Amino acid sequence: MDRVIYTAMSAASQVLNRQSITTNNLSNVSTVGFRAQLTAMKAVPVIGNDMPTRTMVTATTPTFDTTLGAFNYTGRELDVALTEDNWLAIQLADGSEAYTRNGAIQIDEDGTLNIQGYPLIGDNGILTVPQRSQVSVSSDGTLTALGAGDKPTTIAQVGKIKRVQLKRDEIVRGDNGFFQLTEETRNTRGTVLPDNPKAIVMSGVLEGSNVNPVSAMVDLISHSRQFEMQMKEIITADENAQKANQILSLT
Length: 251
Description:
Blueprint: H1 2-27, E1 37-46, E2 53-64, E3 71-73, E4 80-82, E5 86-91, E6 97-100, E7 106-107, E8 113-115, E9 118-119, E10 121-122, E11 125-126, E12 134-137, E13 142-146, E14 156-160, E15 163-165, E16 171-173, E17 179-181, H2 183-189, E18 201-203, E19 205-207, H3 213-250
Antiparallel strand pairs: 1-2, 3-19, 4-18, 5-6, 5-15, 7-8, 8-9, 10-11, 12-13, 13-14, 16-17
């Protein structure tokens, strides 16, 4: 009976993990540029003091959904969206690069362009613009700025947004929500990737989350029913064990 209970317990635990992943996806249905996590079940042997015994199933998130989210027109110059498989590069606190599809660019008090508080990287490092200037973005990522009170003829190029082309198997989601290079990608392509000149930047547009709320809700209901089924299996196994003990006590 312990094998039945162990198997049902293992399954119920992983159903809860899958439910938490689906819940996280659903909570980010309105997050700009969010990529839904995909779950998969993986068999893991239980290692003991001697030989591995039994097999435990665990839920993993090896990859993410690459489907494009809906493009929403905002009309704001510093809202940008990229074509498929292209990413914006930002600089983390440790100086390393990370990547995002969130194109809601902000300008801080120092004139530094950032996304969610992290500096945006351009062709020559972190991008900055003159304070209180009017900034526009072209289709190739070129930034032009017009200073406050300046004549239109004084508009100047101040940098170019870096666009990095990455496939799904080349990056992994970090705990901070940004994507980073896998170890294999670092070894083959390096830690700093070049700009992709073929990538098109759409200004005044933001890419929404690619999470389908209807599908996510259906998955949540399915997870709940699977969990209830495993709980019933544990209760049934416990009842069978009690009846077997009663029979043994009579004999």
